Amino acid sequence: MHLQPDLLAPLDGRDVTIYPRTDPAMNNYMFFLDYLDIIRRLYPGINLRIDTTLENHATKGQKERCVDLLEFLTDSMENSATLRPE
Asked: What is the DSSP string of 27-84?
């Protein structure tokens, strides 16, 4: 695993959001829920949360491809008929 708990020590006192890659069985999301419990015990000063955007909004095809946040956003832009400036 790339995200070893000790690597988060410098983030004590900060807000951290993890955007897990999606997959059909939600394995990545479930892994990070368990990871969140470990980090909260080791570093109670880190306000860690797991974002559910991909699990809530990815298509079945995107979940089968196990897209990450960048791929999800790129797909969304490519599939958008028009991008409207704000």
From this structure: HHHHHHHHHHHHHHHH-TT-EEEE--HHHHH--HHHHHHT--HHHHHHHHHHH-S-PP
- Mean pLDDT for all residues in the chain: 88
Q: What is the DSSP letter of 25?
A: T
| pTM (two decimals) | 0.78
Q: What is the maximum alpha-carbon separation in the chain? A: 46
Please determine, for residue 59, whether its predicted confidence score (pLDDT) is greater than 60.
Answer: yes
User: How many alpha carbons lie under 13 Å from residue 48 in its C-beta half-sphere?
Assistant: 23
